[in-house]
Amino acid sequence: MILLKFCWILIVVNALTIGGGFVMLPMLHKEFVEKYHWLTNQEFIDAIAIGQVTPGPLTVMNAFMGYKIYGLLGAVLAMISSYLPCIIIVTLVAKYYYDYKESVIVNSSFKGIIPAVIGLLAAVSISLGKASLVDFSTFGIAIVSFSVIAFTKIDPTFVIIGAGIAGALLY
Amino acid sequence: MLTFFERELVEKHKWLTHEEFIESVAIGQMTPGPPIINTGICIGYKLKKIKGALVTILGQVFTGTVLAILLAIFYLKAKNNPLLGSIMKGVGAAVVGLLLSIVFKMARKTIKDYKTALFALAAFFALSVFKLNPIGLILASGILGLIVYGRETR
């Protein structure tokens, strides 16, 4: 039952991930952490880090969460559920590209969704910040990583690995 | 990454025309899901139909998924290890910085007038203060977008 619910959430969330891979985070956080308590805030943050440092898209983090929740089967089904909506939607759009591109419904609804998801992501970042920024050093690491990723071209993966080393040295 | 794709697929192997490639990139960006994966699905589908789409996904996510599973096994075993705890404390802080920088970059690109700012602020307060469900909020912002922009887009 948990597994079915887990897969269904991933299908819905991935069908609504409009505007970039990070958009899935507010939805997954609400469902997995706040509603069903399958993961703690800390585990969710760790999953994001793992999605970021592994090759491929952030969605790989779903395999990590799937494993945590339901073992190997959970991980495999997590990936299938994450990409199922992509396959269906993309192949349909590839067929009807010009209708889709000109569609008033698609264009105007996306125009509302794309700024809204920024607000959602900001809100979830703050609530995760409350869980992981616990002292002066963690605040410092967060500020440095924000500045480096926002204002330089350095790959976020290196920032995360660097922060891990900093954590090992500091604590 | 895209320039690499273009060189390999269009120039070297001539599997796609330049126009088909550009179209695939555009489709990747305007469909739900990770853009790079969706571009891959689209190219795979153009080449070998559904088989091509499946193979491209597998190629793009296989390594990452296997690594994520291995890390998950390790993570669950070493959960109470103090060294892992301190590493993850640093990593967790960096993730928050990463998320905020993504917010910053997306906002710089998207928030251009008071309407887009209102959409973003309304969504922010709806989630952080009123604890509404993000799935519902995304659907609602789509419907609101349709109402606000529907006429001018036409």
Using brief descriptors, characterize the structure shown.
heterodimer, A: 171 residues, mainly alpha, B: 154 residues, 84% helix
SSE topology:
The complex is a heterodimer of chains A (171) and B (154).
Chain A: H1 2-15, H2 24-35, H3 41-53, H4 61-95, H5 97-102, H6 104-132, H7 136-151, H8 156-170
Helix pairs in contact in A: 1-2, 1-4, 3-4, 7-8
Chain B: H1 2-12, H2 18-29, H3 35-77, H4 82-110, H5 114-128, H6 134-153
Helix pairs in contact in B: 2-3, 5-6
The parts of chain B where pLDDT drops under 50 for at least 5 residues are none
Q: Encode the helix/strand succession of chain B as letters.
A: HHHHHH
Radius of gyration of chain A, whole Å: 18 Å
Shape of chain B from CA axes?
A: flat
**Taking all residues together, what is the mean pLDDT of chain B?**
93
Number of helical regions of chain A: 8
pLDDT < 50 runs, ≥5 residues of chain A: none
The total count of strands of chain A amounts to 0
Q: Considering residues with a beta carbon less than 8 A from a beta carbon on another chain, report the largest interface and each chain's count.
A: A-B, 108 and 91 residues
Terminal CA distance of chain A reads: 40 Å
List how many beta strands of chain B DSSP finds: 0
What can be said about the biggest beta sheet of chain B? Answer: none
Measured as a percent range, the helix fraction of chain A is: over 70%
